[in-house]
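User: Could you walk me through two proteins back to back? I'd like the raw sequence and the structure tokens for each, with a short line separating them so I can tell where one ends and the next begins.

Assistant: Of course. Protein one, sequence then structure:
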Amino acid sequence: MSAETTDFARALREAGLRVTQQRMALLSILMDAADHPNADELLTRARSLDDSMSLATVYRTLSALEEAGLIRKLSLENEPARYEIAPAAEHDHLVDLDTGEVIELASDEIHQLRAELAARLGYEIVSQHTLIRARKIKPDQPR
């Protein structure tokens, strides 16, 4: 059993979830994903590990993993939700409206500014997430 597999099993148990093949498979796929796959993409990848996996199982498993705080669901306008492993450090996402690409934006300065703004209002940030929808500026387009 690899260290990663042991970590996933421990995380599931600590979240009060049973360790199942489906949960382990989806966690492993999300951990290795360079993109932010949607449920259909996860099903395709999961079937390479377990051809008995169904879309209903993927959705049930994603729901349980999200509720346990092990993954994060990114709800995008007019598109299927995308998923990622719950980040160790908070970060935002930029979605390219033309290609659908999801780009992670990590910035200590933005995180610090948010914390300062919340503190001025008497709050402490528990969690945060910003989704920025954008289009790439074309070279001949004025800024």
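----
Protein two, same layout:
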Amino acid sequence: VGACTGFDAHTVGLDAILNMKGFDGDIGLERYKGFRVTNMGSQVPTDDLIERAVKENADAILVSKIVTQKEIHVTDLKELMHKLKQRGFEDRFVLVAGGPRITHQLAVELGFDAGFTIGAKPSDVANFLYERLMEKKDKALESKKRKK
């Protein structure tokens, strides 16, 4: 499930990653057979994003932040992490942040699994999601084996 949260109305990057056509010859996540994508668009309240991810039984939440005045992108990403923790969901989803001022380091510092910036292609995000989801699946299997 992906969205631009808060007052951010700029979906170009989010759409480039999620929508079928992708960009620059790189297909979007909607075209991958292994992905079911929900693009919530722009100006999505954080609570609505979380509720939709839960409703969809999503494996991942992708947040795009373009608006950066007064570090609002950081504030909004922190809000999402805070609300996920309040609900006990901080480990339920693979969390990805993207945008021109988002770096991988910043995203990880804020509690996300990854950050993607200008130049990232849909295949970069798809590969990351696949690898992270397989890691989570392997850990879950290992945990089940140890409990037996």
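The longest strand covers residues 60-64.

Let me know if you want the two compared in more detail.
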